[in-house]
UniProtKB/TrEMBL annotation:
Domain Myotubularin phosphatase: residue ranges: 173-611
Subcellular location: Cytoplasm, Myofibril, Sarcomere; Sarcoplasmic reticulum
Broad class of the protein's primary localization: cytoplasm
Chain residue ranges for the region called Disordered: 511-530
Gene name, Swiss-Prot/TrEMBL: Mtmr12
UniProt cross-references to PANTHER family, sorted A to Z: MYOTUBULARIN-RELATED (PTHR10807), MYOTUBULARIN-RELATED PROTEIN 12 (PTHR10807:SF37)
GO cellular component: membrane; sarcomere; sarcoplasmic reticulum
GO BP of this protein: phosphatidylinositol dephosphorylation
The keyword Phosphoprotein is annotated on this UniProt entry: no
Name the record gives this protein: Myotubularin-related protein 12
Protein's UniProt keywords contain Cytoplasm: yes
Biased composition (Basic residues): 520-529
One Pfam family named in its UniProt record: Myotub-related
Stated family: Belongs to the protein-tyrosine phosphatase family. Non-receptor class myotubularin subfamily.
Amino acid sequence: EIHIKEPIEKDVNPHLLPGELLLCEASTVYKYMQEDGSNRGTYGKLVCTNFKISFLDDDSASDDNEPEFKNKIVGENDITLQCVDQIYGVYDEKKKLLTGQLRKYPERLIIYCKDLRVFNFCLRYTKEEEVKRIVSGIVHHSQTPKLLKRLFLFSYASAAPNNTDGRNQTVMFDTLEDWRDELERTKGNVKYKAVTTNEGYRVSEKLPLYFVVPICISEESILKYEGRGIPIWCWSCHNGAALLKMSAFPKEQDDSTSQMQKAFLDGIYKTISKPPYELLKMDDLSSSLPSLQDIQTAYTRFKQLFLIDNSTDFWATDVKWFSLLESTNWLEIIRRVLKKAIEVAECLERQHTNVLLIEESATDLCCVISSLVQVMMDSYSRTKSGFQSLIQKEWVIGGHGFLERCNHLRKSEKEEAPVFLLLLNCVWQLVQQYPPAFEFTETYLTVLSDSLYVPVFSTFFFNSQHQRDTSASGESLKTQSGPFRFLTVWDWSVQFDSKAQAFLNNPFYAEKPKPDKNQRKTARFKHQRQLSLPLTQPKPSTKRGFFREETDHLIKNILGKRIGKFINSSDEPPNSFREFYESWHSKPVDYHGLLLPRIDGPEIKVWAQRYLRWIPEAQLHGGGTIAITAKILDLMEEVQSLQVKMDEEHSQAVSGDVHSVTTPRNSARLSSLFPFALLQRQSVKPALPTSTWKDLEDEDDLVKRDDEFVDLSGDM
């Protein structure tokens, strides 16, 4: 049986952005809604432009049933060319990876996306010539290597009117004043200085135009080795201790060069280790954290668990979900990165020690750790504008190689590694553990991860400030169309209207209270924590004693190595670290002070909204965090309306602004993965426990009766 919508009679044209060109198209393409044997789907037109692949059906032209959370640039059936991960063709029921020139064209096309969507198109009813054009066009424009100047970014920048919202509070760190302001904000201007040595990029094209170094570092030292071996300031703690990073010298050098570099480094270390500077602790991240290749391997395995295009695959993986999840090693990498960030925070906060992060280029794991430490220790980095400024400072201006790490130009998979995504996963752990501490939501983080693949914004499409500057002027591209005025991703009005942007802001954010001398701090924060109880999981006591240790030992013996790995990990933190970690967790949380993530075993969770949002079987309709949030928003709205009525009755002015609260429509029926799963199909399989489902699968006569009621009460 095939459930279909009839082919559309009226011609539906794609919505094209400024600079977007239609390259090829095919009519009468059948898009499967699901692949569970029912072949539900709809006919439409499949098009490929220089920006995206898009499927257009009769719903594309209709504004009815439009979601509350709609992206103005990338629609539900749109895939940007940079978001395409892999393309498979189906030949006689066999899947084959499609790359380069094709000799034979498939009858079905399966597109796996980097945001974990899966699109399944049937081409049996499409004209042969159109099949050849659309398949070869999609494969060519999304899979073959391209030049930087061929990115849609440049077409859009030269064609789009520059009328974006100028009220963006994000600090871009592209001027000397921005760095000086940051030094002043963190009280780091006593021992550190912003330098102009790299103006004209005479030191290095990899370094930003302006950066901050210890006052005692001379200009000659910076120039000597193109900025290598120079401690660059990231952030200063309230007690004066600072977080620094350094680009290491290449390991393979001849003896004389190595001796000279060693002498240079010794001189630098001596200079910044004596007063007024604190003691210095050096941390080589290449030896203390997983390699980029390990991170890429783990994520490749991890994402396979979510690239599911049919219910059968879902239920097959569900049976062994936890063992598959553990074998990817992705959650363990997140735990190790968070643990490293806590170690650095302990040095800064408790030991009053400067920490120098060392990495070959200081633009990958250095960015992850320095960003995490600032999110944990600086409440400003937990506001939306503060977090965006942090990403600008450490990643965009800091020189993270987005083109290579995201493989935007399809030049080499060897350089690919989801380093920025790793940071967002780590920040999400903090957001879900301490919701009131963050001004932004997990939806904000999910949308930010999606924006990695939208080449309308320049933010994630350059490797350095030098590359961005020369591209914007048109120098490096040798084009006549420059200078370009690129958009920044931080202007959310380009992607979302004001109603949709409300989902990026946390209505339960505990704003920093104004100082009140008559009120004790501890009482205030204790009260705030009680308010947050419905949003957070109950936390077990972390105090260890005889019975706790004996219980741990017993559980380890009973349940074997796997559970033991969570309780007594092989890289168990040293005593001082454990003492610092447990001491902090034994006290009430100050949402505007230091935040330490819980990292023991099961505390590290899967970012469900990002990874499960396209899988209907994993959704809980009318449940999850959104159900609790919707109820609390209803109460907040009711309280606000009562407040207004009281003020009107007493003829008093409202004290402060009354913020309007947006309550999601039909909140009782929303998916637990709202706002992304609002229009997604529901699962056609019964939501039974795994063991029950497996038992049913063993009974042939029951498997075939999906829609029948099976009375199991006799066994109970």
